[in-house]
Fold:
Amino acid sequence: MNRLPRLFAPLLAVGALVFVVNPVAGAVRGRAGTGRAGAARGTATSSSGFVAPAPKGRVAIALSKRNRIENRAMRQRQRAIRELRNRILAVREGLTAAKPDFLPLASVPAAVQTALTGAAGKNQVLHVVRLADGSGTFYGAAIARPGGAIFNLLVSNNGALLSQEVTAAELTPDIQAAIKAQATVFKVAGIDKTNDGTQIAYEVRLASAGGERHFTLDDRGKIERADTTYAELSPNLVTAIKKEIGSSKLLSLEKANLGGEGIYEATADAGSGDTRIYVFTESGVLRNEEIFPSQAAADVQATIKATLGDNKLVTLFRNFDPGGGRDYDVFAQTPNGRQVEFCVAESGKLLSQQEFFEDLIPAARKGITDVVGDGQIIHIERSFVDQGGVLPIVVLAHKDGKDLVFSMGPRGRFIGLED
Structure:
């Protein structure tokens, strides 16, 4: 995950979603992202200008350079939301298991003890569990509040408070109003205030006849993503999803928004504990699909291997680009746990690689700051596609209520805004 000043997600805001479940279809709910396709979850889209023949049966979708980097940032944020949601679910399951494996508070790392007792305040820490997933170890705790209410906490191995269950009364009026607007059909079953290290958000659980449904609000009350069902989708989109997943079991359907366009993420069981993610437009066009490394061309595999170095491959997505082209987004994890990403063309050429603000040279940081000012940086990448004799740094930021994408030289010289 990009550790920049703050990951802002206005482009992810989904308009009002009415939660109506078909009595037959029910609520589609699964543990999305807990399995692996070649590895674990998460990715972003590319900044490729490469054009190659589209795979048979796929429909290409025209994306501007601006849309591609916005999509990249969106995918990155969705991965963080999914990971936190899955961990919250795992903590709930661990704390309520028939044979729970509780730990003494004194036995967990000091940083975890400090985080748990600090978040609990005067309340009692009842139970602690240790859990792990593909991204590392984390801890959950049950806290006894006055009146007998039990609330859960989620803490990372280094003591970062990732989520804490809260009541509606503890939220700002704007967040309360946003939740109330969405919970018109189902009752709110729980609210978790989350922090992935870049943004505070609210994970809301709704009780439905078919199980739980979830939606995520950003810290301004805008919906970032929400569960949906086949019954709420257009026939064309349902047909497209079913065609792609084939005989695989559908685990979850979620809706998000990219630049005003609704997008839909379907997670399917790929077998042997693996899951696969497919991303569609509202009209049913396949935009991205998660694949195994062996499904990529030999040149692509070679570039991925060379670029990874000592880093661990996390996941691989194939993107369908303008004119029928395609490229590949790679998410990886460094030995110290940092998430990194890069994009590879079908030819095997390295197209772009994520950069972090703090790692840029002072001149480049100043160039970005001069443009963004008191705005917020969302995403930075270094392009390996020549632009006027330089390999530019491309930045997505939010300023004065608008998203902007601009390019600059490696030493901070402003090149221009992207449409």
Notes: DSSP finds six helices and 20 strands in the chain.
